[in-house]
């Protein structure tokens, strides 16, 4: 089905649904309480806006001279006599406690600790020269630490999500194309429609035959001759259509060509099976071209394409029939071209 889909265009693209990403939870700092406490310490009430209500000055506390001038704080006494903190360095006059003795054998203790203790693991180093230039191996970049990480070689989440969105969009596009192809697929003609079509064709044939019977016995003028040829052509085409529809029980109609040219010719071209039917249809096309149909290029091109497709599939028609068909169409086109103004 994908090989038959229509060419891509901006007019037949499927509508994309707008999907908003999921909003992650709001980030809250772990240092928020401490920052809040520090901010509250540096704040003072009414620092910039003043008190809520200003007290009315009392008459007893009237304004005096130099009362609003800034005053220096009271001078504090000298604190030279305060005792200084003790120094961490011992004084010159301090003497250590002498005469303390211990029965511990430090030699044996150190020997036992050296024998029973685990040997010290040497730190791995790397030497790049024979002169002895060395440096730590862990920070040298020679140890494969990065490839041993847990997330090494793992596809990031955003790339996985992007690939899934791309695949989903491709599946939706293919589904829309398949649905569009199903809508534009050929429609099968039902039995009732086929029966009514046959009845209509037979009724038309009877009307044309009635007009043909009403012609005069002697046809001596050109209009009468042309009118007789027209009626004969219509009767022949109606007989051919009736024969084809009666012969084929199953008929499909393409939706694309329901409104293009003579519908009967196109339906019959899809269900042809013998050389005689092809020749009859070519004769009908030649008559259409000679009568001056305005849409003859469209009929000619589509019929020629259908015939070439049919000849490439079927093996019943001989090469001479193909050449005869091509010569008929070519001659008809030249006649129409010469008769056009």
UniProtKB/TrEMBL annotation:
UniProt lists compositionally biased (Basic and acidic residues) regions at 66-83
| Major subcellular site | other
- Give the record's GO CC terms: acrosomal vesicle; axonemal microtubule
* Residue span(s) of domain Enkurin: 161-253
Location of the protein in the cell: Cell projection, Cilium; Cytoplasm, Cytoskeleton
Q: Which keywords are on file for this protein?
A: Cell projection, Cytoplasm, Cytoskeleton
The answer to whether the entry has keyword Mitochondrion is no
Region annotation Disordered: where it falls in the sequence: 1-84
What GO annotations for molecular function exist for this entry? calmodulin binding
Pfam families per UniProt: Enkurin
- Keyword Zinc included in the entry's annotation: no
**The protein, known as:** Enkurin, TRPC channel interacting protein
| Organism encoding this protein | Calidris pygmaea (Spoon-billed sandpiper)
Instruction: Specify the taxonomic lineage.
Output: Eukaryota, Metazoa, Chordata, Craniata, Vertebrata
């Amino acid at each position: 089905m994908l090989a038959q889909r229509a060419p891509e265009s901006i007019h037949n693209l499927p509508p994309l649904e707008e999907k908003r990403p999921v909003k992650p939870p709001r980030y809250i700092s772990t240092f928020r309480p401490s920052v809040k406490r520090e901010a509250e310490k540096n704040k003072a009430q009414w620092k910039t806006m003043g008190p809520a209500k200003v007290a009315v000055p009392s008459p007893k506390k009237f304004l005096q001279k130099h009362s609003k001038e800034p005053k220096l704080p009271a001078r504090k006494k000298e604190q030279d006599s305060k005792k200084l903190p003790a120094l961490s360095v011992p004084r010159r006059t301090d003497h250590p406690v002498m005469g303390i003795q211990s029965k511990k054998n430090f030699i044996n203790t150190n020997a036992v600790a050296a024998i029973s203790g685990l040997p010290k693991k040497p730190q791995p180093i790397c030497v790049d020269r024979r002169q002895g230039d060395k440096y730590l191996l862990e920070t040298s970049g020679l140890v494969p630490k990065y490839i041993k990480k847990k997330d090494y070689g793992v596809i990031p989440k955003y790339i996985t999500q992007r690939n899934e969105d791309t695949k989903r969009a491709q599946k939706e596009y293919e589904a829309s194309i398949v649905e569009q192809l199903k809508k534009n697929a050929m429609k099968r003609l039902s039995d009732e429609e086929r029966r009514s079509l046959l009845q209509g064709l037979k009724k038309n044939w009877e009307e044309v035959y009635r007009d043909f019977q009403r012609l005069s016995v002697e046809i001596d003028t050109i209009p009468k001759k042309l009118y007789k040829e027209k009626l004969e052509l219509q009767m022949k085409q109606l007989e051919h259509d009736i024969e084809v529809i009666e012969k084929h029980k199953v008929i499909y109609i393409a939706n694309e060509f329901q409104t293009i040219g003579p519908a009967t010719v196109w339906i019959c071209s899809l269900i042809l099976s013998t050389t005689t039917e092809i020749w009859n249809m070519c004769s009908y096309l030649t008559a259409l071209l000679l009568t001056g149909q305005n849409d003859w290029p469209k009929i000619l091109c589509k019929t020629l394409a259908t015939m070439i497709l049919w000849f490439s599939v079927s093996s019943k028609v001989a090469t001479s029939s193909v050449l005869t068909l091509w010569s008929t169409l070519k001659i008809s086109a030249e006649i129409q071209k010469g008769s056009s103004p």
